[in-house]
Structures are given as structure tokens and as C-alpha cells.
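We close this part of the discussion by returning to an individual protein. The sequence in question and its C-alpha cells are set out directly beneath this paragraph:
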Amino acid sequence: MSEERQGATEVTMSQQGVKSGRFLGSLKDALAAASRDDTQRGPAPAPVEPATQLAPKAEAPKTAAEPVKPEAAPAAAPTPAGLSAAEAAREVKGQTSLKPQDKHLEFGSPPTTRVVRGGPPKVETTGSPRTQLVRGKVQVKRGEFEQDPVVGWLVIVGGAGMGSFRPIFEGNNTLGRATTQRIPLDFGDDTISSEEQAYIRYDSAARSFLFVPNLAKTNVVSINDKRPTGAVELNQMDVITIGRTQLVFVPFCGAEFDWAELTDAKD
């Protein structure tokens, strides 16, 4: 068999191999076969333009069964704290101008809690003096009385104004419904005389209290359910009834204490 017929036979067999589904030979074998044909037919043809040169054999199309290898993804940038991967990608691409601490405004995620170390910031206060710390024995200044010193109280336990109290001052104290009285009983009991219904006097020398009713008034008063006709010494927790009002006597000064002790110590 001649070489030309042998080449034709090989081409025919190659075509039959393609029809039968067999894979062609390598690119090197195909070029060798073409070179043998060209030497038998005549001189070598002119150089082929680069565009018409024989291209490498195309790969067979990939079927669904053959997995496609994914390309290597670029290294992901570190995700900022408090952002999801999608938010981080948008931050890198410059598609959002929100700051990380403001992401919750767009995506609905809660804001990140910031930890403040070193305690709360100091707030400067102006206008109010600072409290001074006192150490050792306290030196208290004792001057003159700014008002009449309180020597006891009358506490209302019955009638109008129940639960209220009125202070008793040193010297002579007048009791009455009018507000001009030194001990005003102005709680609404109209059976009390407006002026000088009675007197309460504290004697600093004797350190004693005296209750003196005003016998010129028509409404009588009583102490512990007794109607006095003259001055009566008051004792702690005595009950005084004037009109429809009951008062309890509570002394502050007496045998155990008097304001004179403080004034004498000052001298």
C-alpha cells in the first residue's frame, strides 16, 4: 500500500473514531500526520497568518455531572466589629457612608455597647461650696439668741388642729384664738377667746412652769379635768382643756436643763 493511500486510510479511520465517540490523538500526532501529507503532496505552503494557525484543540463542554472548580476567592477583609459579612462588603466597596456605630439605623441591628473604663466623667460644679470635713473636737460658737428661746411645747391631742403643736417661750405667754397671741390657738375653735384666754409662764430662776387662767373670761379652762381658780404648776404630760380643744404640755427646760447653762458657759 502506498503512503498516500495509507494516509487516506488513517484519515478515514480517524473520522470513524470520531463518529464512534473515541477521543482523537494528541495535538502532536495530528501535526505529525498533517506534516506527512504535506511532504507527499508538494512544497510546503506559505506561512499561515496567526489568526488562521491551528488552535489548540478545544476542550469538550463540561456536563452537569462534572463539578466546576470555583476560582480562588480573594482574601476577605476583616469584618468590623458589630457588622455582618454583607455589611462589611458594602463598607469596603464604599456603597454606604454610615459609620459602624450607626449601622443599626439602616439594618435594624441593636447598637454596640461601648465600655467606659475609669469610672464616670467628672462633672465640674460651680456655685455651690464644697462640704468641709471636720476632724477632732468641734468648736461650736455660742452667740446671742436670734429669737425667744423655746422652753416647751403644747401638742393638740383633741379638737380642731389635732396633731399640731405650738411652742412655749421663756417669760410670759398669752393663749388665745387671735394670731397676735404669743401662743395662738387659731385652728377654728370659736369657743376659745380671741385674746388672753389664759397664761403660761416659765420662770428661769425657779425652772418651773405656771398656768394662770383668766377668770375674767366667761369660758372656763381646766387642767386634768380640774378647774383652777389661780396659778397652777404644770408638770410633764398634763392635759389642758380650753373650749373644745385639748392640749398636752411637753417641757423642754426644767430641773435638768435651762438655757442659762449655755449662756453662763459662754462667759
Notes: Residues 150-251 form a domain with the Tumour Suppressor Smad4 fold (CATH 2.60.200.20). The longest helix spans residues 3-19. The beta strands are 150-158, 165-169, 171-176, 183-184, 198-203, 208-213, 221-223, 232-233, 239-242, 245-251.
